[in-house]
Amino acid sequence: MEDRLASPHLERLAKNLIAHLEKSGMTKPQFAESIGMSGSQFRYVRSRAANPSIEMLAKISAKLKTPLYELLEDCQLGHRRNLSAKQMSKNLSVIVKRKYVESGLDKEQFAKIIGVSLPQLYLMLRGDSNPSLLAVVEIARRLGIGMWELLGVKLMQIEKPLAR
Fold first, then answer.
1. For residues 75 and 153, is the Cβ–Cβ distance under 8 A?
2. Contact, 156 vs 80, CB < 8 A?
3. Contacts from 100-107 at CB under 8 Å and sequence distance 24+?
4. pLDDT digits (tens, 9 = 90+) for 93-106
5. What architecture is domain 85-151?
6. Quick one: which of 149, 160, 151, 162 has its CA closest to 61?
7. How many Å separate Cα 124 from the centre of its chain?
8. CATH homologous superfamily of domain 8-73?
9. 134 φ, ψ to 5°?
10. What is the tens place of the pLDDT at every residue in 23-60?
């Protein structure tokens, strides 16, 4: 799995949260509370010691009224979709299911290939998973697709929207 300090996504998240903090005029504890975090959680995210879950990232995105894609990529959302945590989990589930079926492997073998435990794979297949950002990056890499495609923010070339 990608090292937290080396992660460009966590670096951009920290940088963008600091920019939002400065723009807000709030103190760090006030800002942290406004985005649904404790002061210590915010400190860990700013220092890239934390690896937030997709649900936490979606919550931050909603509170800041800034698409998650823009918080993590420093690019405008453009033609990409701004999805909720539930929608991203559903897309992850659909794509992991499809890749699992296409692989022809049993669940245990497939879980090893994508770098998750068997119980975690079951949660993903049911759509009940809330993986961390770096786990999503790694799963996407192992599946040979982009993180945004795995989450459904960026549609794969041949597919239609999975979540609405």
1. no
2. no
3. 100/125
4. 999 999 999 999 99
5. Orthogonal Bundle (1.10)
6. 151
7. 14
8. lambda repressor-like DNA-binding domains (1.10.260.40)
9. -70, -30
10. 999 999 999 999 999 999 999 999 999 999 999 999 99
